[in-house]
Each structure stands twice: as C-alpha cells, then as structure tokens.
Specification:
By secondary structure, the protein is of the alpha/beta class. It is built from 10 helices and 12 strands. Helices cover about 35% and strands about 20% of the residues. The strands form 3 sheets. The protein has a 4-stranded parallel sheet with strand order 2-1-3-4, with helices on both faces. The longest helix is centred in the last third of the chain and has 21 residues. The chain is globular.
C-alpha cells in the first residue's frame, strides 16, 4: 500500500479536502491520511510514500522529521532540503538570470545585532551603508519586507527616506528586503503544481483579505500564455512541486513580486470554490502520480534546474 500523508497545522479545509479527494479516486494500492508521528529515530523510514508538507516552515521538529523521511525514500512535497536553503532574495537574484522581470531589490543587514554577535562580528560591513545609492536604485514609494518571507507580517510601504529609517528601526533582528513599488494595472496569483500544472487567478492585494480573489482582471490569451511560461520557468528552476507565484502587470509587463510560497494559501474560504476545487483535484492527481512512481530507499525528491545543472557542471541559465 502506498500511503500519502498530509502534514499540517491549523488549516482544515485543504488537508481534509485533499485526503477525501485522493481516497474518492479509488486508485488501487493508494490511500491518503493525515500524518501521524509518535517517534522519530535516525535512519528509520516512515510509512508514507508521499508527504505533502504544509507546516514545517513554522515547526523545526517537523522539518527534521521530513528530511529523515526524504533520506529514507519518501517523496516530500516540497523538497525540505531546498526549502531550508531557499529565501526570497535568492529567488529574485535567480529571476534576473532566467529572464523573469522582478522589482529592483536590495537586501539589508538587520537593524539590531543578531544574538551572540557584537559590532566586531561585522568587520566586513561598511558603516554607514551607501544609503544614497540604495534609495536611488529602489526609489520611493518602496516596500520593505523580511527576506525569508512570513506572509504579510512585518511588511511596510515606505514613502520617503525618513519613513524608511523610522520603520527600519522597528524590525529588530530581521533581515529585510527593500523593493521598488510596482504600480500595477492587473495582478494575478498563480498556483503551480508538479512544475507543469498552472492556474492563473485574478487577485487584488489591495482588497480586504477575504475579498482578494474577488478581482475582475482578465488576461488576453497571449498574456495568459506569457504568464504561464513565467510561472513554469520559475518553478522548474526552483524545483517546487507546490507553489504560488504572484505577478503584477505594469505597462503590460508581468513582474514576479512574490514567488517563494511553498505552503501557499489553499483555504476554501479565501480562495473560493472554483480555485479550491482546482487545487484539490490537481494536488490529488499529482500526489497519486508521485506515490505510484515512488521507489523505497531511493531519492524521490524534486530538484530544480538550478541544482541539477550545478551538480552536472552545466551552464546554469538559458
């Protein structure tokens, strides 16, 4: 029996909907359930051929469990080794190499010294930074947000240099990104599952949270294809099985604003019935595909083009 497990936290509609959808398909030898953990010993395999991870970004114990599971042959969605190494600034850097438009972005050292460091720990860091060049590059208004993500927490819209310094003083030990504002005409949030299935959803981030998918944007067939190509390119290079990419269209150009969301919102109450039905169906089909292909004791993870080309000594970019 090939078991598909879902590892999750407070969410309910996606995990149960996914489990029910997999089991309703009655694929011989495949079943789905919520993951149960009662002991984690080094080198011991789990009972799951596939695990969909929805929570380990917030629970280090779960991340360690998933890495051990992957080493023993479980196909973890998403790859816990890559997810541990990935962050939003690297993704922006990668985008510049694979011809994906992104906002002008810089990374900033934390306002406060990290724990267990002193000013002597930063002998290689100029003080002050070249703020004039930084602000000239990004311009204002600009957005400041944590480089490692975290949803909408600690995100600031900044209107001036004085505003920047006032808000940056609130960020403590967080390492932040400063990013130019993209004033968009249209905005889309795009699911990508398995590096091949894409759903492009009109999205209005300026609306209240429960109304963000109530947007009237409608891309032309040509623009839809262009955005789909960008979403696939990003996910194939990063190697994510389940991700969302946010695209803002300025003067018709799709800018990738946020594309490191490996546990993306899939709640029925926020994404709406049609999007929920798509993500449940597509995730179920892909997880079954992974379960049937899974080989015990082998590496069943997805690795992106960046890693695969690097390990093979190939040219990294198109």
């Amino acid at each position: 029996m090939k078991k598909i497990g879902v590892l999750f936290g407070q969410e309910r509609t996606f995990p149960q909907g996914f489990i029910d959808r997999v089991n309703s398909k009655n694929v011989e030898g495949v079943t789905a359930e919520a993951v149960t953990i009662n002991k984690v010993a080094q080198g011991d395999p789990t009972e799951y051929a596939v695990i969909i991870d929805r929570i380990s970004q917030d629970v280090p114990f779960y991340r360690a469990y998933l890495k051990n599971a992957a080493l023993c042959g479980t196909a973890v969605i998403n790859n816990p080794f890559w997810w541990s190494a990935d962050e939003k600034f690297f993704n922006n850097c990668l985008a510049t190499k694979i011809d994906v438009p992104v906002p002008k972005t810089v990374i900033l050292p934390s306002r406060d010294l990290p724990q267990d460091t002193t000013d002597q720990s930063f002998s290689n860091l100029a003080y002050p930074l070249d703020w004039e060049a930084i602000f000239s590059y990004t311009g204002f208004p600009a957005y400041m947000k944590p480089f490692a993500g975290g949803g909408w927490k600690n995100v600031y819209k900044l209107t001036s240099i004085d505003d920047f310094f006032e808000k940056h003083a609130e960020t403590g030990q967080l390492v932040m990104l400063l990013q130019e504002e993209i004033v968009f005409e249209e905005y889309y949030r795009c699911y990508c599952i398995g590096g091949k299935y894409v759903r492009i959803m009109p999205y209005e981030p300026r609306n209240p949270h429960h109304l963000r998918y109530a947007a009237s944007f409608s891309p032309s067939p040509e623009k839809h294809k262009e955005m789909e190509d960008i979403v696939l390119r990003i996910n194939r290079f990063l190697g994510y099985d389940f991700n969302t990419v946010e695209l803002a269209l300025r003067d018709g150009v799709p800018y990738a604003i946020d594309f490191c969301n490996p546990a993306p919102d899939a709640d029925r109450n926020s994404v709406g019935e049609e999007n929920f039905a798509w993500v449940i169906e597509t995730a179920a089909n892909y997880a079954i595909e992974k379960a049937l292909a899974q080989e015990p004791g082998k590496d069943n993870l997805t690795w992106g083009e960046y890693i695969k080309r690097s390990s093979a000594g190939q040219a990294l970019y198109p």
